[in-house]
Amino acid sequence: MLTAGKAMKVSIYLSEGSTHHGVPTYSSILDFLFYRGVSGATVIKGIAGFGADHHMHSASVVEISDHLPLKIEFIESREKVNEILGKLEELAGSGMIEVQETTLTKPSQVSKPKKTTPPAHLKMEGKAKMMRIYIGESDRWKDKPLYKALVEAMRANDIAGVTVYRGSIMLSAVDTEEKLRSFLPLVDQMVEEGLVVFSDVDIIKYSYRALDVDLPEAQAGNVSA
To answer: Which domain holds residue 69?
Structure first.
C-alpha cells in the first residue's frame, strides 16, 4: 500500500484504437496493473492530438475519432514501478511511457461502508385526520409536478405519511389535525385550483418517518412516502 513520501508517477500515452492480442491496449494495461496490485489507475481520453506518425486526430472527424489519444496514469512506489515497467513497455507497443518522481502527500484509502442508523420506529395510535388534496395531473409548481412538490413539502414538514393516486391526482396524507392544518397555508400557496378534504381516521399501524420517496412521473399506481 502506498504511503506518504517519494513516489513515481507513470503516464502511458496510447492511441485509442491500438490493440494488444485483439484487445484494446488500454484495457490490457489496466488489467495488468489491477492484478499486479497497483494502487489505482486512471484512463484519460483526449479530444484531439497527433502522435509519432504526425497524423492529426480529432473527435469532430468521425472516420478517425477512434484513434484519439489516451493517457493511462498511476502513482506507485519506485520498487513497484521498476518491477512492472518492462511488461508495460511491451504492452504499450508504439505508445510512449513517461516516468517522473513525485511527492505523495496523502495516499488514497480504501473506502469503508458507512454505518447507517435505522430510522426511528414510530407508533401512532388514536384519533387523527386524513387530508385529501385533489389536483390535476398536469398541474405544476416551480417547474416540477405539483403532486411531487407537495410530497416533498410534506416530508420536509414531517407529515407522517402521504400516498399519491394517479388519474386525476389525489394526495392522501395522515397525521394529527394540528400538524395538517399548520400545513394548509403552504397548500394555499402551491395549489392554484383544487380541493382539500379532511376526515377522521383511526390509526392502528406502525410506520417509519425517515423514508425516501421516489416518484417516477410516468408510472401508474400509487406511491407512498
So the answer is: 5-104
